[in-house]
């Protein structure tokens, strides 16, 4: 089970950069050599979305949905997704540090993101199970969603997804988790 | 710059915990290693991290605390596994820091030590009768059903109809759910075989969760409560009178508390209709929440050895919200039970006299993971913040400590200029002392055996329960 289930799209990139990056450039991370997917440099290949060697080069362009991730330091990272992608998956494909501990099974809140207001309203309502897990997310806001539950449609073109800052005071309402 | 050699000490962990749990130390440790980019490129290009763990197997509470019927929570093991496979990360199981290796020896061999050993003990009630038979800590009970080697012989008494759980947290709900779940659901999980057998023969039909304060102070979370309400063949028993006046306050509460309280109110006040009403009427088991009761004494049966009931003081609340305090009144109430489980929180122990420890708070005093007055020592997870929080909090906490370490390397506060011996030195000591460490690939052999044994029984795995057996399998 353990080693065998390294799923494509849920890469936990270990970030070992050889040289410091300049500001504004997205990280090109070296992957654990056990992973089969090639390392990605988003700058060199902005228009194709290479998941693996057999990815569709003749991708239907009408399926493309452009979104922007805003990472914890405020850096904007434009990303090309396609209809049907979930945001957690897309983040991992693009080296965005959105954790997904339970691997999209609605059993954690580590993929918590803020969705920009305009697009938040276009998302289908969260199911009860997602709302339950969102309750556990630090710094919950009105526009909070779990990334693994946000699925791209053409309507979401231009959506911005902001990663919550990791702060010492986890709860905006001053709530302190009680002992188990 | 010479390699930063850090050791993460997954020395003593184990805490039976509830779901979502708290991947105790190994998880905090592995999260420490997965340092995220905070925009400044704090990664270290040549850090070496060694993880020392008392048990032959890694993952801490993810393996031993998360309930067997919550397998999705355990998916995080995949992320940890990937980290552990990294060239410069090594796992050494079956090594007890404080016994097999000392903190001092580790300090000599590494530039930094990160203590992530969690909270292995439980808070005790401190009341007469606490040591009667039939009274257990939830921690040991969870360890028992999760195959923790030290709890495999617990042999709990499940022959009475009523069980009382003290505490209103997720661990208590986990225990209640495992006690009352239809056996066919448990059969397909990785619950320890001896526990499955015992629960299949169990006579427990009724579980009461007793807490000192009121509905607005419960510590459990909505997912777990919902699971209890929806538990097949079980009906909830909540008293409407416990919720008087609460309806008015609810709308102004922060969202998580609001939704949780609304669900409780609904379960207490709403009369179910149709299928749900039928389901509840036909249920053979029941569970309930009792509020404003503190344990005063465990009452023995006629033989003086076994629990027969509990004497509770009736409380009232002073103050509001999370910080409301309970005050005992003159009134008492006795409840009958043949099984009692205390689930009132965990506790950490100091690992070594040389490591500062705050006995009052039960944590290692620290600032953002830097142990106070102890350069080169860091901490993460429950031993750093106290034994509370779920995966997301422990994860962020691990990241925070890792960032502190890397900042200190950059600033020179942590001096990594001198080269350190790391595991080479420890290896020699362990050999001298006859200790056989289990590597990560050794764990993978154990993993394969457990999965193979589980397949025969239609379970995801059948856990090995014996440390010697684990070490044997690992060394093949």
TrEMBL record, chain B:
- Biological process per Gene Ontology, one example term: cholesterol metabolic process
Q: Which UniProt keywords apply?
A: Electron transport, FAD, Flavoprotein, Mitochondrion, NADP, Oxidoreductase, Transit peptide, Transport
Q: Which cofactor does it need?
A: FAD
Annotated FAD binding sites: 53, 61, 97, 382, 389-391
UniProt GO molecular function: oxidoreductase activity
Where does it live in the cell? Mitochondrion
UniProt binding sites for NADP(+): 168-171, 212-213, 224, 389
Protein family according to the UniProt entry: Belongs to the ferredoxin--NADP reductase type 1 family.
Provide the protein name: NADPH:adrenodoxin oxidoreductase, mitochondrial
Q: Which organism's genome codes for this protein? A: Scyliorhinus torazame
